[in-house]
Each structure stands twice: as structure tokens, then as C-alpha cells.
Design a protein that fits this description.
The structure is a single chain. This protein has 152 residues and is an alpha+beta fold. The chain has one domain (18-148): Transferase(Phosphotransferase) domain 1 (Transferase(Phosphotransferase), domain 1, Orthogonal Bundle), CATH 1.10.510. It contains two helices and six strands. The strands form three sheets. The protein has a two-stranded antiparallel sheet. Strands 3-6 form a two-stranded antiparallel sheet. Helix 1 (37-56) runs antiparallel to helix 2. The protein starts with 5 loop residues before the first strand and ends in a 34-residue tail after the last helix. Bound molecules: adenosine-5'-diphosphate (ADP) and magnesium ion (MG). Adenosine-5'-diphosphate is lined by residues 4, 16-19, 26-27, 29, 67-68, 70, 89-90.
């Protein structure tokens, strides 16, 4: 999944990559950016995929929202235009998906936050982003390909 690259961890301090925008400045949070409906749907699909990848690694973020996702600019090769990609930050409260009694509630809240924020556009009805069949997640191992459908 896309997170800032860690450089060092010393005495409780984590030194990490600065996620940047197209000008090399600190990347904006999702909350700071206006999206077209198509962009919102694309970022939603990407982020649900990231949530599934975290689950595959046994982790629930626990505070996933538009305030803890940055929009990084990835420069294109040669003359190709670059792309903006979500990068997830702020993971200190992440919990063990299988071992924490609150994991399922936190997972549903994380997914609900993505739906509420990215579905809050005139032509992106939140219903389209409603996660289906989320409850059975802890009873089986999620697969990364589950992200293709946004339902798992
Ligand atoms: N790796 C990073 N690259 C660029 N900006 C970052 C990075 N990590 C954090 N930030 C910025 O710092 C803010 C606070 O960081 P965060 O990890 O969310 O801490 P907290 O919410 O606990 O204060 C973020 O909203 C973001 O704007
Ligand atoms: Mg934060």
C-alpha cells in the first residue's frame, strides 16, 4: 500500500518521506482538494483496495478519513503527464484486525468515512459507495483482488 517511506525510527521519533504535490511542496490532504465525480470514484476504488491490502496484512487503520490521506503527485515518464495518488498517513492507532475486539467497528468506520467524504458530490450518490457484505471479513482471509469490486 502507499504510505510515506520510513527513513529512521529513533527514541519514538519516526523520520519519513515528505509526500509532495506537483511543485515539490507538502502534499494536500484529501480534505483540501476538489474532485470531479470520476476522480472521486477512482480514489474511492483505490482506497478500498488499500483498506483490503491492510486487512491482508492483518491491520485496520482505525482513523482513516480525508484528513489522514494525502494526494501525492507522481511525475510521469518523459513527456507523460503525472498522476495524483492517495497516500495514507497517521497510523499510530492502527490495530490488529484479528486480535482487537474493536477492529470490525473501526474497519466499518474507516470505510464509512471514505464513502461519506468521496460520495459527498452531486453526481456521486453515497449509495454507490456503500460497502456490501463487510461483516464476514474477520471470518475469512481477504484477498488483494477483492479490491477490484469494492465489496468483500
Ligand atoms: N509524510 C508526510 N508528508 C507530507 N505531509 C505530512 C506527512 N505526514 C504528515 N503530514 C502532514 O501533517 C499533518 C499531521 O500529520 P498526522 O500524521 O495526520 O498527525 P496528527 O493528525 O496526529 O496530527 C497531516 O495532515 C499532513 O498535512
Ligand atoms: Mg492525522
Amino acid at each position: 500500500m502507499r504510505v510515506p517511506r520510513p527513513f529512521n525510527f529513533f527514541d519514538g521519533v519516526l523520520l519519513m518521506e515528505l509526500v509532495t504535490d506537483a511543485h515539490g511542496d507538502a502534499a494536500p490532504r484529501l480534505n483540501d482538494v476538489a474532485f470531479t465525480p470520476a476522480q472521486a470514484l477512482q480514489h474511492h476504488a483505490t482506497l478500498i483496495g488499500e483498506v483490503v491490502r491492510m486487512l491482508c496484512a492483518g491491520v485496520v487503520h482505525g482513523d482513516l478519513s480525508e484528513f489522514n490521506i494525502l494526494l501525492a503527485h507522481i511525475p510521469g515518464e518523459g513527456d507523460q503527464p503525472g498522476v495524483d495518488e492517495p497516500v495514507i498517513i497517521d497510523l499510530p492507532q492502527a490495530v490488529d484486525a484479528a486480535g482487537n475486539n474493536h477492529a470490525q467497528r473501526m474497519l466499518l468506520r474507516d470505510v464509512g468515512n471514505l464513502r461519506d467524504f468521496l460520495g459527498n458530490l452531486p453526481r456521486v450518490a453515497p449509495d454507490r459507495l456503500r460497502p456490501r457484505n463487510l461483516e464476514p471479513v474477520p471470518s475469512r482471509i481477504a484477498q488483494p483482488r477483492d479490491s477490484a469490486h469494492g465489496s468483500f
